[in-house]
Amino acid sequence: MDESSDELLKKKKIFIGKKANYYIRRWEKPNSWNWAAFFLAFFWMLYRKMYLYASIFIGIIFVESILSEIFFTVILEMPEAPDYYSKAVQFTYASLSGIFGNQLYKIHTEKKISMIDNEDQLIEEGGTTLVAPILALAALLILIAINAFFLLNFSPETFLEDNSRILR
């Protein structure tokens, strides 16, 4: 049973919420730029309730970080990845998110709409949330604080100084 294009458009507007006209206009083009996805890709995905894509995005970053660490420190025997490499990778992630963010959101929207039958569920499953990005930001800040604590208190130099007589 095919839905009319008017019915599908109505469902998209309900699912997306107040920015529906913006996204529907953007989806008419094969690729359109999304500044929010460029600057805040992971948080934008969480804000738009694209949890699977946000998880995949973080997974890709995690795997790439491990592989680049192995490549630069083990294979090339460098102390760390060069700064220009890290900046290029970050810019690439941001650019790809900015270029493909709207289309990714279109795919997400259409998939969710195809699985939902009633308007209340469209409203609940769609729209935006501030809870997920705020929780992710809080988790990130906690991880940064823990990392800073350990770097300041348990750096290799501090460890060697504090335990020099034990190591002799």
Explain what the structure shows.
The chain is mainly α and 168 residues long. The chain has one domain (5-129). The protein contains nine helices and no strands. The chain has helices at residues 5-16, 20-27, 35-47, 51-75, 83-115, 119-125, 131-153, 156-162, 164-167. Helix 1 (5-16) packs across helix 2 and helix 3 crosses helix 4. The longest helix has 33 residues, at 83-115. The relative contact order is 0.14.
Strand and helix layout:
Layout: H1 5-16, H2 20-27, H3 35-47, H4 51-75, H5 83-115, H6 119-125, H7 131-153, H8 156-162, H9 164-167
Q: Would you list the SSEs in sequence order as H and E?
A: HHHHHHHHH
Q: Spans with pLDDT under 50 lasting ≥5 residues? A: none
Which band does the percent of strand residues land in? under 5%
Rounded mean pLDDT score: 91
Distance between the termini: 79 Å
**Number of helical segments with 4 or more residues:** 9
- Structural class from helices and strands? mainly alpha
Shape: elongated
How many structural domains are formed by the residues? 1
Write a concise synopsis of the structure shown.
This protein has helices spanning 5-16, 20-27, 35-47, 51-75, 83-115, 119-125, 131-153, 156-162, 164-167. By secondary structure, the chain is mainly alpha-helical.
Spell out the key features of this protein:
mainly alpha, elongated, 9 helices, 168 residues
